[in-house]
Amino acid sequence: MSMNVIATDALTGQPMQVTMTDGHCVVRPTEQSTPAKYVISPGWVDIQVNGFAGHDFNSPDVQPSDVITAVRRLWQEGVTHCLPTVITQSEERMAHSLRAIARACADDAAVRSSILGVHLEGPCLSPVEGARGAHPLEHIRPPDWEEFLRLQAAAGGMIRLVTLAPEVTSALPFIAQLRCAGIVVAIGHTLADGDELVQAVAAGATLSTHLGNGAPSVLPRHPNVIWEQLAEDRLVASAIFDGHHLPASVMKTLVRAKGVDKLILTSDAAALARMPPGVYHGQLGGTVELRADGRLVLVGTPYLAGSASSLRDGVENAVRLAGCPLGQACRMASLNPLRALGLSNVQDSFTLFAWDAAQCRARIIAAVVAGRVRWQDD
User: Fold this and answer.
1) Residue 63: inside a domain
2) Residue 158: inside a domain
3) Tally of domains in the chain
4) By Cβ atoms counted within 10 A, which residue in 1, 114, 247, 252 is the most buried?
């Protein structure tokens, strides 16, 4: 399907000519002054995706086909690149998930071009109720370098990001080892105090995972683990702007405290993201309800059971609820995560969308990865 349109560059405001022919895409500046109804952004990058559209990367029976289908479905959300996320479980279960991701990349070159690596969230997290979130207590454990090497082998060397709690035993030397191996280290699911956070950053941690979540509902007024990470200028923060995990006031505060260049939008999507509303059994060891407004809760409680959003929701909510200009929202969904991962702009990767400014809604038109149109709206 061919397409030739004028789109506004989300970051610069410059008109761009977008030509898609035979699955290839070329984007170049143009002098045309025709008002553009489309917006083009550097490809959106989600660094925390646990599954999508019914496919769970952490299921005990996950297959490479699940990973392939989920990544291809993410293209429809404008997500050109992602980090499939493997969370705390037994070493055997985690290795199984990692092998499925690695095999998916080997089986499908298009999917491989979209996967920048794997995010390992755990198992070295706080065991304290609230701080550990949905991570099972029986599998929370201290760092073990030999175990990490086995997991990295299962992943085919694809683990790029590790989230851990810096206060756990042996965490600081583990952080240093990870950094020496070229792994990005994030702080999350933690109750570390200010000194422990400073030591973690000195050892090599550079990121806060879903700041404002993965913490008990009641914390000391100050100091606390959220304030300390907000104030640490050397930490970039990721945040879930799905409209449920954080209220609008907190979204605005995160943007103002961290600044646009040090904030990353992420979905932390669970397998039920973009599934129909209803009650689902066997999720997180129990029964959950996906409500019509996209809120995913444990049945019979007000408690969140994960995120049922995509990065598109995050971009929309950054504008609608946090008051960001659209260009800033796109930067937080594209260039910022790449920089946090130590990557430059992914060459010729774009998210093309139609923007409804009145409703703050994006309709995805195309996802382009390395110059190839991976998905296009008919």
Assistant:
1) yes
2) yes
3) 1
4) 114
Closest CA to 84 of 107, 109, 114, 54: 114
pLDDT at 285: 64
Supply the pTM of this predicted model: 0.97
Q: Domain with 227 in it: what CATH number?
A: 3.20.20.140
Q: Is 211 among the domain residues?
A: yes
> Could you tell me the residue range of the domain that residue 112 belongs to?
43-273+309-346
316-367 per-position pLDDT tens digit = 999 999 999 999 999 999 999 999 999 977 789 999 999 999 999 999 999 9
Distance of alpha carbon 43 from alpha carbon 48, whole angstroms: 15
Name the residues annotated as catalytic: 268
Could you give the residue ranges of the DSSP H alpha helices within the chain? 64-75, 91-107, 109-114, 145-154, 171-180, 194-203, 225-231, 248-258, 311-320, 326-333, 335-340
What pLDDT digit, counting tens, does each position of 201-253 carry?
999 999 999 999 999 889 999 999 999 999 999 999 999 999 999 999 999 99
Of the candidates 126, 73, 161, 105, which has an alpha carbon nearest to the alpha carbon of residue 375?
Answer: 73
